């Protein structure tokens, strides 16, 4: 997109450009929401009356920002440590995502995983033992 297209998009969604910084051949834009999100969301969702039934999880990336950990293990399988009262539990990121997606409060029926071809065997192995 051009700079003008981005500016138009920001303005249409109540964001204003604070600054632009060149970085590695790209321009990083810092934007600020003019209206706090808490004032926008309740009325927006109340008007819509729609229900999310499908989720797309784009997890095919190489996880470059998570290196060196992601060189050994795809980012979806990186461990997250949880603490509840006196116990510690370590679970993969993907496990936590799926738990949140399939809670009783959601009406989600389908999940589409966008994965890299070289990671397919890992996901097949993971889901063969998934409850």
TrEMBL record:
Write down the InterPro entries for this protein, in alphabetical order: Nucleotide-diphossugar_trans
Q: In which domain of life is the source organism classified?
A: Eukaryota
- Supply the name of the protein: Uncharacterized protein
Name the lineage: Eukaryota, Metazoa, Spiralia, Gnathifera, Rotifera
